[in-house]
Every structure is written in structure tokens, then in C-alpha cells.
Amino acid sequence: MFLRCARVHGMLSPVVKRAALCVILLAMPARTFTASGSLPAASAKELAALPPVAAALDWLVKNVSWINDEQARIVSIPAPPFKEAERAAAMRTTLAAAGLRVHFDSVGNVVGELRGVNENEVVIVSAHLDTVFPAGTDVRVQREGDRLIGPGIADNGTGLAALVALAKALRFARLKPQRSILFIANVGEEGEGNLRGMRAVVDTYRDRLKGALVLDGAGIDHVTTKALASRRLEVVITGPGGHSWSDFGLPNPINALVRGALRFINTRVPSSPRTTFNLGEIQGGTSVNAIPHEARLKVDLRSESEEELARLENALREAIAAGVRDETQAASRSAATKLEWSIDSLGSRPGGEGRPDSPLLAALRSADDYLGNESRLERSSTDANIPLSQGLDAISIGAGGQGGGAHSLQEWYDPSGRERGLKRALLTLLGVSGVAPERAK
Question: Is 396 part of a structural domain of the chain?
């Protein structure tokens, strides 16, 4: 009425314009926006009150037994490093059955899409397919009561089962997000995979990506918001080799490797910033009575500081150089032969930290408040390293239940209370993707 009257008397004066603007702003309902400014933020409590979200949460609770069985089925399919194809094919079929549009990308990731109102913005929820166990490992899952036992059952069978469960729950509820959600079962998270799956995902969707929720392992007591930097290196020392008796006195690559490794393990590392190293794998030789022609050592270096990481790598190089020199000088026939050595990169995981205004972290905290859960912030090495290192919004969380013995043949998972973890993941995901209003029937 104010503006209508003003128009009757001609053009609005500056004073009238300012007054009209104040009236309009005061009349607008208060709303909170995410950091991107494109979606109104809703608390987990508000989300849970929406009928489709309530239906999805209820589906998770009622189908825990099916989710447990699905986890055992998935984990019983081998997925050794660089050979995830069989498990990936099974996940593609399962996600397609959940109503997603599914495809393989160029590196073998399984990508399932739940289209949102805004298809120009996407939120990722992911779980890695691969395990640390080599081909030929018996990955059949055993049961002791409710407990599931088998290689990879918690890391990352829990995440993969949760990925399927979230997709099924949203389909059951016929929920449409505001932003499109990509359900990704990715390759290359473990060991020498060097996060190649997540690297490809971020390269593909970087311009549209509004959040990456990584599901890795069990538990609901933590959230990874800081990426732990690491470098994986391989030391290779080579020589002519020979017979242990007749060629005694030739420089021995294994001896040189041992001499260098002994020097390196005496390297002092700080407790703050926390820095670690691990000699993880040694190979070399063909027979007990043969001087080897080659010796190899794989080393894992990690630090909260890129500077300390570089210092530690330099210490390794100096130690190996000294080991080769000492072995050559000790050998009685060194004048005629030489040892060659190199240190090659097997992978480098970048560090990074989440944004102070992270919408994903805010959504997780809201979900924790709603569920009465307490969780701590931590630094870790996960698929979230890649988006975090590029300034993108990302966190990594456990998917519920409890697990132990990770990376061992006795790995176990206890699904008790897993529905709480699934609810936490769902509410966090929807807190960033948003929920489209229900259409009038």
C-alpha cells in the first residue's frame, strides 16, 4: 500500500525510496545462508522434521540387518591395489538398483548421480573401494555373533555399505536434493594408489563442487578436517651380484641398504609438528648363497609440516648415500664394481586444512547436536586430502559401528549402533545438498 500510494503521486523521492526499502527489508523473514550464498542453511533438527527426510532416517533404522549383510557381501569381493574392477562392477549394479544414474569414469571410479534441482552444483559422498591386501588374499567374511571378521571389513567395507544405504534410503523417501548428489565408490585410496580416484573426481567436478563428504571406516567420534601430508618413496640399490663364496668381496646391495636404513632410523623427528616414518617393505635377493643384484626398500613419511616432510626425505637420501659409500669402501673388490642407487616417488599426498566457515563441518556439528553425539576434530590421511589441499570444502568421517585390526587379516567390525552413524552421515549430506520442497499432490 505504501508503494502504491507513492506511485499515485508520481516518482518516489529519495527519502521515500529509503523508507520503502526499510519497510521491505523488515518485512522479509530472517534466513541464514551457507558460505556459498546459494542455499539457505537448515539445522539437522529442521531437516529431520521434513517428511521425506524422516522417512529416509526411518528406513536406515529398519534396514540395519540388510545393510550388515550387504557389507559382508561387498567385502567378500576382492579389491587388491590397482585391481578394484570386480568390486567396482558389483557396486555399479547395486547403486543402479538404488535408482541412481551410474557410470564408470576414466580411472575406474563408480559414479552414481541423484539429480538435484540445481544440476550446476554438486555434493560428493564417497567411499574407497580398494584394500591393502594383495591378490590371492582370502577375503571371505566370518561371523562371530553380530561381529563381522575379514580383511577390509571396516576399512572400507563400512563406508561402502553406508554409501549404498544412503542411496537406498533417499530413493525410498523419494527425496530430491537442491544440489545434485554424486555417490562415488572410488579407486586408489590405499598405499601406492596415491589417491588417484579422488584426484580424478576433483579434476572433473572442481568448478561445480560444493562439498565432499568422505566415508572411511567406522566410528562416529571423530571428523577429519585437516589433511596429513605424506610421501611414499622406494629406495633401489643395484650391483653386479655373484656367488656368495667365489665372489665374496663384491659390494652387496642388501648390505648397503641395511647400512643406510640403520642410519635413517636414528633420525630425530619432532613431536610437534608431529612427524613419523616407517620402513614398510624390503625386497631383494634370489638365494641364500647368492650376492643379490638388487635390493629395494619402501618408506612412508608423514608430517603435519611440509617443511619437516622435506627435511625427512632429505635425511633418507643422505642416509642411503652414506650406506652405499660405506658398503663400497668395506668391499675388498670394490675397485672393479660399483653400486648404483636411486630413490623414486611412489606417491605424494598433499596436506591442507578445512575452511573456518565450512558448511560441511557446520552441517556435521548440527547433526551431532541433534543426535546427542560428541566428536573431535582430527588430522588424518584420507581421500579428503585432495579437495582440502585445493581449498575445497571437505571432511572425512566414520560411518558408524565400531571396528579394529585395520589392515590386518583379523580386521573386525561390530555394527552395534551403526544406525546412528548412518543418520549422522545422511543429515550432514542433506545439510549441504539441501532438500527440495515437496510437490503438492
Answer: yes
- Please check whether residue 330 lies inside any domain of the structure: yes
Judgement on whether residues 341 and 400 belong to the same structural domain of the protein: no
Residue 295: HSE in the Cβ half-sphere, 13 Å Cα cutoff:
25
Evaluate whether 412 touches 154 at the Cβ level (below 8 Å): yes
Can you give the pLDDT at residue 6?
37
More confident call, 214 vs 335: 214
User: Would you say residue 204 has pLDDT above 90?
Assistant: yes
CA 359 to CA 352: how far, in whole Å? 17
Q: What residues form DSSP beta bridges with 299?
A: 233, 279
Closest CA to 160 of 392, 400, 380: 400
CATH number, domain of 308, equals 3.30.70.360
Per the omega criterion (within 30 degrees of 0), is the bond before 273 cis?
yes
Is residue 262 within 8 A of residue 327, CB to CB? The reply is no
CATH of the domain at 160: 3.40.630.10
Q: How many domains does the chain have?
A: 3
pLDDT tens digits for range 391-411: 999 999 999 999 999 999 999
Confidence label for 336 from pLDDT (cuts 50, 70 and 90): low
∠ CA 156-158-164 to the nearest 5 degrees? 105
Domain coverage including residue 307:
229-349
Would you say 179 and 429 are in contact if contact means Cβ atoms under 8 Å apart?
no
| Claim to verify: residue 290 and residue 189 sit in the same structural domain | no
Say what the pTM is: 0.86
| Whether 193 and 61 share a structural domain | yes
User: Cβ of 273: how many Cβ atoms within 10 Å?
Assistant: 14
Residue 15 has phi, psi (to 5 degrees) of -65, -45
Domain assignment of residue 35, yes or no: no
Give residue 438's pLDDT band: very low, low, confident or very high (50, 70, 90). Answer: confident
